[in-house]
Specification:
Elements (H helix, E strand, L loop, with lengths): L4 H4 L6 H15 L2 E7 H7 L3 H9 L2 E5 L1 H10 L4 H13 L6 H14 L4 E7 L2 H14 L4 E5 L7 H9 L4 E7 L4 H9 L9 E4 L3 H5 L8 H5 L3 H8 L1 H11 L1 H7 L6
Parallel strand pairs: 1-2, 1-6, 3-4, 3-5, 5-6
Helix pairs in contact: 4-10, 5-6, 5-15, 13-14
Length: 259
């Protein structure tokens, strides 16, 4: 993995253990950044220096999706044929820590442990932002929840709310699209230090929370087919993304090196 420094930064903990690791890091060091790495973004932006530096600066970088898990299994194998032989075992050791599933799991774990929460949503259009806020209010009625759309800079009053009560567990969910959201977090985290927030770059989570998009049926997720389901049900948004995903099949045979 020395030839892949960004991938070497990934966290491989199972989700239950990962929740505890994030909370422990937060208790010790305060502000905590959690980013997700999707294979398409890794392939498209690995030569984007500031994006790569932002991911390397995160406290936790989580593997997201079957394509990245396949590629990780491949570069850990001696050859393509070794990869094929051990693929099933290798994939079991690489968790799929996608933001759409892990962030709600993390919030639910905090709520079940009676941690005082305030949740801030920054991103999406106004309609989706408010819809996601209403959904989270139903899921976590004890939490304080605030939302601002991502088409304008962070408002002073929104920033003031983030900084208002550092005694609570402040969760900031940022969805501005990759690589913009990771760069925004890296550029703004120092100004948020007094609040000691846990910051997640969340991808399309707000689309699902606001019900702008629907999740695939559970059985499709179980066989790692959600990427194809989303491409077929939302082709204008997701079809090109799905085409990029198929690049992994070439990369499994001829793995590229990080630039």
């Amino acid at each position: 993995m020395s030839e892949y420094p960004l991938l070497a930064h990934l966290t491989y903990s199972q989700k239950e253990q990962l929740v505890q690791e994030i909370l422990q890091h937060h208790a010790q060091d305060g502000l905590t950044v959690v980013d997700f790495l999707y294979y398409i973004n890794y392939r498209k932006y690995r030569s984007h220096r500031t994006y790569t530096e932002a991911l390397m600066a995160s406290d936790f970088l989580l593997p997201d999706g079957i394509a990245l898990r396949l590629f990780l299994a491949r570069i850990q194998a001696w050859s393509f044929f070794t990869f094929l032989w051990k693929k099933r075992v290798s994939l079991r050791a690489i968790p799929n820590l996608n933001g759409t599933d892990f962030v709600p799991f993390f919030l639910d774990s905090c709520a079940r442990n009676m941690l005082p929460l305030q949740i801030f949503l920054y991103g999406a259009e106004e309609k989706e932002s408010r819809g996601a806020k209403r959904k989270l209010e139903l899921l976590f009625p004890e939490a304080e929840i605030f939302a601002q759309n991502g088409f304008e800079p962070l408002r002073d009053e929104f920033r003031a709310e983030i900084l208002r009560d550092p005694t609570k567990h402040t969760i900031l969910l940022v969805w501005l699209g990759t690589p913009r959201q990771e760069l925004w977090i890296e550029e703004n985290k120092k100004s948020l230090l007094p609040a000691k927030p846990i910051i997640f770059s969340v991808g399309g989570l707000l689309d699902f929370l606001s019900e702008k998009e629907k999740r695939s049926p559970r059985w499709i997720r179980k066989i790692n087919g959600e990427w194809l389901y989303r491409a077929l049900t939302q082709p204008r948004k997701n079809f090109r993304k799905a085409l990029w995903s198929t690049c992994v099949f070439y990369d499994l045979i001829f793995p590229p090196k990080e630039q």
